[in-house]
Design goal:
This protein is of the alpha/beta class and 339 residues long. It has 2 domains: 7-75, no CATH class; 115-337, Alpha-Beta Barrel (TIM Barrel), CATH 3.20.20.370. 36% of the residues lie in helices and 13% in strands. It has helices at 7-12, 25-39, 61-66, 130-135, 139-151, 159-168, 187-198, 209-214, 222-230, 250-268, 284-292, 326-337; strands at residues 115-118, 120-121, 136-137, 155-156, 176-182, 203-208, 234-239, 274-276, 297-303, 315-319. It is globular and about 45 Å long. The structure holds zinc ion. Zinc ion binds at residues 182-183, 238, 242, 278. Keywords: Carbohydrate metabolism, Glycosidase, Hydrolase, Polysaccharide degradation, Signal, Xylan degradation.
Length: 339
């Protein structure tokens, strides 16, 4: 049920040796709990000298050091709504970022920043169907888009930048734009990433962690994701798999969303704060789940540009189609930003 451990965490936090003794499972849990309580250790038993926090918080040093603003552990809600077998302790042994939304200064704000939505940045394969053609922007065409954006004075910002503006009035550049790329295809690394760097732009990539876990050559690998993140690209979550997440129970959502979030955060060391709904379907349960686990927002495929705090789990985007040249891109942008 829980996502498998990632190698770096396995190295950092070895299982206590007692787990190897052949005893009934319930008895092992009881013994571990007793030891844990006696020693005031977290359930998974980190060696005391490697755990500098006196409260025994299960936050790895790597995560802590990368985010000095991480809230105190007492602010972290326990996943009490997750069905667990009776008698099993509730804390999750797999830490992940849960940053509260930046505190609002009380000033209501609204933005109309274009959030562009790309998928493939590559030449469609021979015989590609209409859907694939529609989702594919050729690299030369994409470069023309970037040239236009630069000439027109656009500067890329992140979705977090929008949140900091909406909550605290943090200034944005005069012509902000967010460039998002869905699905994490391999061409994001091979085509989009170098072009974005050449033009000094920053992209936001919504990836599928299951594809990276399996080493699917059509999708981004973890190594590519890590390099992109280190170069300043935003890596955010589209899901573990590309499956609809409406009508699901909490355990299912935990596996697919928190599992994916943990994987990205462990590989990049940076928080995952935003979600792109797979197939753009969602329901109240899903939105409340994201909010409960301190996501800052989510994007849909609804057409538009309308960012407010109130609709931050339903921010619309501007779909860029395979047929969109520079005039079409300019036309779409001018609907929201003026000429
Ligand atoms: Zn998608």
């Amino acid at each position: 049920m829980f996502p498998k451990r990632i190698p770096s965490m396995r190295r950092r936090r070895p299982r206590p040796p007692i787990a190897g003794i052949a005893l009934p499972g319930g008895l092992i849990v009881l013994i571990l709990l007793s030891i844990q309580q006696a020693l005031a250790l977290p359930f998974w038993g980190t060696a005391p000298q490697t755990s500098p926090t006196p409260t025994g918080t299960p936050t790895p040093e790597r995560v802590l050091s990368s985010t000095p603003t991480l809230p105190p552990p007492t602010a972290t809600p326990l996943p009490t709504r997750i069905p667990t077998p009776t008698g099993t302790p509730t804390p999750t042994p797999y830490p992940f970022f849960q940053e509260p939304l930046p505190p609002s200064d009380g000033t209501p704000r609204a933005l109309r920043v274009p959030i562009l939505m790309y998928h493939y940045i590559s030449d469609p394969p021979p015989g590609a169907d209409r859907l694939r053609l529609d989702l594919s922007v050729r690299p030369s065409q994409f470069e023309a888009h970037l040239q236009y954006l630069r000439q027109a004075g656009y500067e890329t910002v992140s979705l977090s930048d929008l949140i900091f503006h909406l909550t605290q009035g943090k200034p944005l550049p005069p012509r902000p734009v967010v460039l998002t790329f869905d699905d994490g295809y391999r061409d994001a690394y091979e085509e989009a990433f170098p072009l974005l760097q050449r033009y000094g732009f920053r992209g936001t990539f919504f990836v599928l962690t299951g594809r990276a876990d399996e080493g699917d050559p059509r999708y981004l690998s973890w190594e590519q994701i890590r390099r992109m993140s280190e170069a300043g690209m935003e890596i955010q979550l589209h899901g573990r798999e590309h499956i609809p997440l409406n009508g699901r129970d909490e355990a299912f959502l935990f596996y697919h969303i928190i599992g994916g979030k943990q994987s990205i955060e462990a590989h990049t060391g940076r928080p995952v704060r935003f979600f792109a709904y797979p197939s753009s379907v969602y329901d109240e349960t899903l939105i409340r789940f994201l909010e409960g686990y301190r996501f800052w927002g989510a994007v849909t495929t609804a057409y538009g540009a309308d960012e407010r705090l109130e609709n931050r789990f339903l921010w619309p985007r501007i779909r860029i189609r395979g047929t969109d040249g520079v005039p079409q891109l300019a036309g779409k942008l001018q609907e929201f930003t003026g000429p």
